[in-house]
Design a protein that fits this description.
By secondary structure, this protein is of the alpha+beta class. It is built from ten helices and twelve strands.
């Protein structure tokens, strides 16, 4: 076992031979959008993301399904599975089976197995002083989908969020592999501040996130100011309370976006400052047009992460 539970890495890695290891991950959750086909795509993209964040290539997937009995048209399940299958096909992987149970609430996701060279694994530890932090997707999916459930999100903000959540992190991962990056994580349930905290504490470094540079989905801050906050956001804030500092100059809404749990979020990449311009240029050329520098690493101090 090369990567296990000793750190907060996104997936496990097991070496099969000197030049080959497998990456294992699993994720599933309830719907955050009404369209079952889109939900299937989003959940699949989210499940595949952990393999990409480790620098691996997904190969096989197994569906995990919870579905109520006799309460919904079975075609809804078919649309969910079709969405997942289409996204797996886009990733160049295959679905080889799965498991389903009867449940009162729909849930869907996948276990994913990928491959990677044992010497080319991306970890979420190893950040070095002077590194810059690059984020490849905009923030605010949790806030926007919460507002959507209450009928308060604009069509444009929802469309932006769905486009982001259904986008694979494949291109971002492939570009990152061409550079000597020091650490990578995908931004999901702990929000960008939470995942930055994991990277910082695991690396013995402090990360400074610059609020003015965070890429944002349309209306995310405005909706946060109106109180459309997820339960996960509140739990993240409680957990990070003694591990982060949010400067008073940062607005409440923007702070909430930085704590907001993300679904199928982008990659958070730590790389030497001298490589920043080139990696961002290559990310943009590969279609990852949101990619930008959002912060930097400095010498260890507590708390581990600061939003300024």
């Amino acid at each position: 076992m090369l990567v296990g539970t000793e750190t907060a890495d996104d997936a496990g890695v097991y070496r099969l031979r000197p030049d080959l290891a497998i990456v294992n991950t699993v994720d599933f959750f309830p719907p955050m959008v009404d369209d079952p086909y889109l939900f299937g795509q989003i959940s699949a993209a989210n499940s595949l993301s952990d393999v990409y964040s480790m620098g691996g290539d997904p190969k096989t997937c197994m569906n995990i399904v919870c579905f109520p009995k006799g309460k919904m048209d079975i075609s809804i399940l078919g649309d969910i599975l079709r969405g997942g299958a289409d996204k797996v096909k886009e990733a160049g992987a295959v679905i080889i089976g799965g498991h389903s149970i009867i449940d009162e609430e729909i849930k869907y996701g996948m276990s994913v197995t990928g491959v990677i060279h044992p010497d080319k694994i991306f970890r979420n530890v190893g950040v070095q002083e002077g590194d810059v932090l690059i984020l490849t997707k905009p923030l605010g999916t949790g806030i926007i989908t919460t507002a959507l459930k209450r009928g308060k999100a604009s069509a444009e903000s929802v469309d932006q969020a769905v486009a982001s959540m259904t986008t694979l992190n494949a291109a971002a991962s492939y570009v990152a592999r061409r550079f000597p990056v020091h650490a990578v994580s995908d931004v999901t349930g702990f929000g960008v501040l939470g995942h930055a905290q994991e990277m910082a504490s695991g690396s013995g470094i402090t990360l400074i996130l610059e609020s003015a540079k965070l890429p944002l989905l349309k209306d995310a801050v405005k909706l946060a100011d109106k109180g459309y906050i997820t339960g996960g956001c509140k739990r993240n804030r409680d957990y990070l309370d003694d591990k982060m500092v949010i400067e008073k100059s940062v607005s409440d809404g923007l702070a909430e976006v930085a704590i907001d749990p993300q679904t199928s979020g982008g990659l958070l990449i730590a790389v030497g400052k001298q490589h920043a311009d080139k990696i961002i240029a290559e990310l943009h050329a590969a279609g990852v047009t949101v990619a930008c520098v959002i912060g930097y690493a400095t010498s260890q101090q507590k708390p581990w992460v600061r939003l300024v």
